[in-house]
Design brief:
Chain A: Keywords: Signal. Chain A: It comes from Planotetraspora phitsanulokensis. Chain A: This is Sugar ABC transporter substrate-binding protein. The structure holds two protein chains of two kinds. Chain A is of the alpha/beta class. Chain A has 19 helices and 14 strands. In chain A, strands 7, 8, 9, 10, 11, 13 and 14 form a seven-stranded mixed beta sheet that branches. A five-stranded mixed beta sheet of chain A has the order 2-1-3-12-6. The longest helix of chain A is centred in the N-terminal third of the chain and has 27 residues. By secondary structure, chain B is an all-alpha fold. Chain B has two domains: about 70 residues, no CATH class; about 190 residues, MetI-like fold (Orthogonal Bundle), CATH 1.10.3720.10. A two-stranded antiparallel ribbon of chain B has the order 1-2. The radius of gyration of chain B is 23 Å and the shape is globular. Chains A and B meet through helix 1, helix 3, helix 4, helix 12 and helix 18 of A and helix 3, helix 7, helix 12, helix 14 and helix 15 of B.
Chain lengths: ~450, ~300
């Protein structure tokens, strides 16, 4: 009898220990653990989690160092995390009451879920009292920080539209010009393939990279109202004919071998997609302007030698969208955990008022090829080696009729996951455009 | 998977010391029991409870009855993930068992070079799964990987971008790491077989093959069951390697149940449905382990060794 009981227990151990072990391992491996803002409270030390990957990581780290130097009594401890790991880590930490004092994010749908759970501080009165802090930033950056009329985050860092990069050397090789329309893109694809150059680089395993194609195509074909209807939760909003048209065009591009071989196993976090562009293995890449810094740093002569070209996403013939519109990150966002101690909150607010986007930090962002979201930032890059690119980004950001937030950031996490999942399947050609529309209509408003 | 080692170690004391004695011995199980209840039973009850709620991981936990279960059971993703999980179990078992068995028998020989090989061969098991996955991902990259670097066209495949290839790569990498572990089990099993049996067979004129099929294999029956149980239950919960290597892709071609659970729970913030999948995972694991136990006969503690 005894022996049987014990053996059953061993089974329970085997079968239950493993899933839990796996889940625990998943939580534990994403980064060094930090004492949470809520639990520590041992005096004047605030915590701050942000994204790794150079050169941006260095700018963030130095901003914290400068603040700490100026405020010996109110220190901030920063911890960097990788992009995709961070998205999971921060949610888990907030849910467990272990959030850092200062929460770095993209605003939008994720911020809304923090607000709904009462996890972040309402900063409306802070901005009322410190009008100067608010007034020096781009007004457009506050949209994704505002939930139901109240401001829950401090916009920071840079404005990052998504643009179409191209390798000029590759274009010279086949004697072609950068595409001016969707038709040009489809014409260029066979030409590049014939020359042994992949038309487009794409880090498809990250999925949001694929999504950028849909965002632009839908906007160019149907205008901004189509996604706005989805965002507002209108029933059947994905059934708009523009959506089917957009999905069909994407699949045509995939079928024509528009993307680099193996795109679905390349991750954006490894910067391999950028490497494909600057090594000349791919001719073009649709990506956020934040990749400019990485390509300047890693690409050797590619950026300094003037081999990197860039344009806004071209219009689609017969499309209704305004070709000046753009998509991307109108800014990055810092929120304060409501679980932090009053002392920690004070440090964080002081950091927002005095330590975020100082002139020095703005200058460093410019050096990475980023446009800080500070009014009159264009004065900072007069004579800079990246002035052309910075003017280009500044122009896109300030001329865009609509600067839309990335879909996965605008929607709730649950809806975003379904969206990304279906986008991956679309690019894998494992579902048809119509199936995509049906799958997505089923989760509207969630 | 790192969880292998602990499960192997979590064995109960040998039958002989346990049976027929009271007193202090049952108390020796208390530490294991405490750990098991703390990290096994209590979380399981928590997960069962969560599967009847809706929770985004941040806010309030609301009871929602069977909604999570209905969502999960109606989702075509579930049968797909179950099917992929089953394929992983079947393929990794079918690939690992014969190879581990042969290598185990080979390593059971007492020659010195075999001992050296055994040590070398053991190395993959010592590496972290995430590190292995990152290394293979880099090696298999069609643009910057091994094939492109050495200009070997045969190796320039979209290894992780095509469903069948990606699945095969997962099975290969898993096997590459765990065959050493199972070989070790078989090596031990083979060394337990009394020499006298082989000597008797040789006197009767049995050849190498005959000895393998008539003595080694039947004597290893329980070793095979042990190794298979570990393999099957371990494959059921493969997570880290697949997560890093393919993230369940391309699309959902390698999305096993454990990964599906993670994606729902931590990426989509749907803890209710994720918990329902966790419960399904536990049930499937229990069923498989019990099934393997039944296949092993009524009394797995019995031994065919002489003198036992």
């Amino acid at each position: 009898m005894d022996s049987r009981n014990t053996s059953r227990r061993t089974f329970l151990g085997l079968s239950m220990g493993l899933p839990l072990g796996a889940a625990l391992a998943a939580c534990g491996t994403s980064g060094p653990s930090q004492p949470g803002g809520g639990s520590s409270g041992g005096g004047a030390k605030a915590t701050y989690w942000y994204l790794s990957v150079q050169p941006q990581e260095g700018v963030r780290t130095r901003a914290v160092e400068r603040f700490n130097k100026a405020n010996p009594n109110g220190q901030i401890t920063g911890t960097p995390f990788q992009n995709d790991a961070y998205k999971t880590k921060i949610k888990t930490a907030i849910g467990a009451g272990q959030a850092p004092t200062i929460i770095w994010g993209w605003g939008g749908g994720t911020l809304r879920s923090y607000v709904k759970a009462g996890q972040v501080e309402d900063l409306t009165s802070f901005f009322d009292q410190n009008a100067a802090v608010k007034d020096r930033l781009f007004p457009s950056s506050f949209g994704a920080a505002t939930i139901d009329g109240k401001i829950y985050a401090m916009p920071c860092e840079t404005v990052q539209p998504i643009v179409l990069f191209h390798n000029k050397t590759a274009f010279e090789k086949i004697g072609a010009e950068p595409p001016q329309s969707w038709g040009d893109i489809m014409d260029l694809v066979p030409k590049f393939n014939k020359a042994g150059i992949a038309p487009f680089s794409l880090g498809g395993q990250s999925r949001w990279t694929n999504m950028m194609w849909l965002e632009f195509l839908l906007d160019r074909i149907g205008g901004t109202e189509v996604f706005q209807a989805v965002f507002d939760g209108e029933k059947g909003a994905w059934s708009n004919p523009a959506v089917l048209d957009m999905l069909t065009k994407v699949q045509e591009l995939v079928k024509a071998n528009g993307f680099i071989k193996g795109f679905s196993s390349i991750t954006a976090d490894s910067n391999a997609d950028q490497a494909l562009l600057y090594t000349g293995k791919a001719a073009m890449m649709l990506h956020g302007t934040w990749t400019y810094g990485g390509m300047s740093q890693d690409g050797g002569d590619f950026v300094p030698g003037g081999h990197l070209g860039y344009t806004n996403f071209p219009p689609v013939d017969g499309g209704k969208g305004d070709p000046s519109n753009t998509v991307g990150n109108p800014g990055q966002y810092l929120s304060i955990s409501s679980k932090a101690t009053p002392e920690q909150k004070e440090i964080a607010k002081k950091f927002f008022a005095e330590g975020v986007l100082t002139d020095q930090e703005g200058k460093e962002w410019v050096e990475t090829g980023g446009v800080p979201i500070v009014k009159g930032a264009d004065a900072a890059w007069a004579g800079s080696k990246d002035a052309d690119f910075l003017n280009f980004v500044y122009g896109i950001a300030s001329n865009a009729k609509v600067f839309a937030q990335s879909w996965d950031q605008a929607l709730s996490p649950a809806a975003a996951e379904v969206l990304l999942d279906n986008i991956a399947k679309l690019f894998q050609l494992s579902i048809s455009p119509q199936q995509w529309v049906d799958n997505m209509n089923a989760v509207i408003g969630q | 998977m790192s969880a292998f080692a602990p499960t192997a170690r979590r064995g109960t004391p040998p039958a002989a010391t346990r049976e027929g004695r009271g007193g202090v011995l049952p108390w020796l199980a208390v530490p294991a029991l405490v750990v098991f209840v703390g990290f096994g039973v209590i979380p399981l009850i928590g997960v069962l409870f969560l599967s009847f709620t809706s929770w985004d991981g941040l806010g309030e936990i609301n009871l929602s009855g069977l909604t999570s279960w209905q969502t999960v059971l109606a989702d075509p993703g579930l049968p797909h993930a179950l099917w992929i999980t089953f394929l992983v179990i079947a393929a990794s078992w079918a690939f690992q068992t014969p190879l581990s068995l042969l290598i185990g028998v080979f390593l059971a020989g007492r020659q010195r070079y075999r001992a050296v090989l055994a040590v070398v061969f053991f190395i993959p098991l010592l590496l972290s799964q995430a590190a292995i996955a990152i290394a293979y991902k880099a090696l298999l990259d069609p643009n910057f990987g091994l094939g492109a670097g050495l200009h070997i066209d045969l190796l320039v495949q979209d290894w992780l971008g095509r469903p069948v290839l990606a699945f095969s790569v997962v099975i290969f990498v898993v096997s590459w790491q765990f065959i050493p572990f199972h070989s070790l089990i078989y090596q031990g099993g083979v060394r337990q077989i009394p020499r006298s049996m082989y000597e008797a067979a040789e006197l009767d004129g049995a050849g190498r093959m005959r000895k393998f099929f008539s003595i080694t294999l039947p004597q290893l029956k329980y070793t095979i069951i042990t190794s298979s149980t570990l393999m099957v239950v371990g494959s059921l919960t493969f997570f880290d390697l697949i997560f890093v290597l393919t993230a369940g892709g391309p699309a959902d071609a390698t999305r096993v149940l454990a990964l599906d659970m993670y994606k729902r729970g931590f990426q989509a913030s749907l803890m209710g449905p994720a918990s329902a999948i966790a419960v399904i995972l536990v049930l499937v694991g229990l069923a498989l382990a019990l099934l393997l136990r039944r296949l092993g006969g009524r009394d797995p503690q019995a031994s065919q060794l002489e003198g036992a």
